[in-house]
Amino acid sequence: MAFGTQDETDDVMNEINMTPLVDVMLVLLIIFIITVPVMKHSVNIDLPRASNEAQNIKPETIRLTVDAQGVYYFNETKVDDPDLPSRLQAAAAQTPQPELHIRGDKAVRYEKVAQAMAAAQQAGLRKIGFITEPVN
Fold it and tell me: pLDDT tens, 45-104?
């Protein structure tokens, strides 16, 4: 007992339906036909010219070394304690401002390194770093 009639033409369709593919291609073709002329129209303006030279002005690096006896060396030149703030102020006035790298001997009292940091801060140096040696 069958509830419906069964057609004998219900075979599997083994061909690709090309109609949706052709529809999509025609839509894309119309979009490109419309947009290409629009993209070719441009507004002419006079843009400013700029030089493309790189301006690599690197600030000088100041090495302030404190040896085991607490003596200061400003770029490997021995400096007395009263002369250190004036040297740091002169360095802070430079444009661009140099970086200060402090190298403290591990046998020196931390007080000498702290005094150098305080003098650099009072002089107006903003970039202060420490130089250490890696542990092997």
Answer: 777 777 777 667 777 899 999 999 999 999 999 999 999 999 999 999 998 899 999 999
Residue 89 lies in a domain: yes
Q: Which parts of 17-109 fold into alpha helices (H)?
A: 19-40, 84-92
Name the residue among 101, 97, 102 with its Cα closest to residue 57: 97
Question: In this structure, is residue 11 part of a structural domain?
Answer: no
| Token pair recorded at residue 45 | 């303006």
Q: Which domain holds residue 125?
A: 65-130
Let me know: does 91 contact 123? Beta carbons within 8 Å: yes
Chain centre distance of CA 59: 18
DSSP annotation of 48: P
Domain count across the chain: 1
H or E, element range at 112: helix 110-123
Residue 123: left if φ>0, alpha if ψ -120 to 50, beta else—which one? alpha
Residue 77 forms part of a structural domain: yes
Q: Are 103 and 111 in contact (CB under 8 A)?
A: no
**pTM above threshold 0.70:** no
